[in-house]
Amino acid sequence: MHRLLPFWIALPALVGCGSDATTPPASPGNVTLAITKLLPQDSLTWCSESAPDGDSCTARQPEPVVIGCDRELGVTVDVQNFSLRVPDACGSSLQCGFLSLTLDPDAAPITVTGAAKTLLFDLKDLHTQGKLDGEHVLRPALFLTSDHPFTHPFTADPVDLPVTFQAVPDADCAAASGGTGGKPGSAGTGGTGGSGGSSTGGSPGNALGGAAGEAAGGAAGDTPGGAAGEAAGGAAGDTRGGASGQAGASAGESGGG
Q: In the prediction, which pLDDT does 208 show?
């Protein structure tokens, strides 16, 4: 005959199984986070000291970062052993979250966030305020949730990147923009073609006047008589074209005769 054990005797075993099921997953390894590249203009790449030597760079730290006419700056980071996801989409994963980049964190901070390794800063307001040119600081960070930063384990603590911004002058941007606008201005040259139209209008006008003069003079000469032919041919000739109009008038006279 089997005897049932009291419930409290079996309780530790049940609790023990539950604790095994809630054991946190193992870390995939220490996380790496560093700013490696800045993208200030099309086809230009500025590389920091953290960028691999084999990367293609048009400028390197500590050279100034020349900000283009659109006043935007792309910032690329190296992230390892950390999954980038939209905020609050990682569940129980310990090394998963989103990237945060802050410009001038200790002054007037501008922060952008996202789930990509390259994020874009809009610096138009900073330029308008006259604060774009000069020394700045970029700070990278990782967040597990919107209010919970990732703090460890890192291979090395992320560091701020000091940079010097130098904006392309507004006058150069305006000149480049105006040059592009000059192409539609050639439609204005088409307007000059309008003066060509006056010459086109002139010669065909004379021919038309002459033909009209002759036709008008001839018809008028045949029908009403010479004087009417002269008047019709002369008027048409004077209006549409000189020499041909006179020819129209002569034709009118001969038609009238």
A: 36
- Do the beta carbons of residue 39 and residue 123 sit within 8 Å? no
Which tokens belong to 242? 């000189």
Token pair 């700045």 is found at 136
* CATH-assigned architecture of domain 27-173: Sandwich (2.60)
Locate the DSSP E strands across 155-215: 161-167
Q: For the chain, where do the domains classified as CATH 2.60.40.3760 start and end?
A: 27-173
Q: Classify residue 137 as left (phi > 0), alpha (psi -120 to 50) or beta.
A: beta
Residue 18 identity: G
Walk along the chain (257 residues) in steps of 10 and give the mean pLDDT of each run: 45 42 64 97 93 89 96 97 91 92 97 97 97 98 93 95 97 81 48 44 40 36 38 38 39 39
Flag whether the pTM goes above 0.85. no
Residue 252: Cβ-neighbour burial (10 angstroms; 0-12, 13-18, 19+): buried
Closest C-alpha to 199, from 241, 235, 233: 241
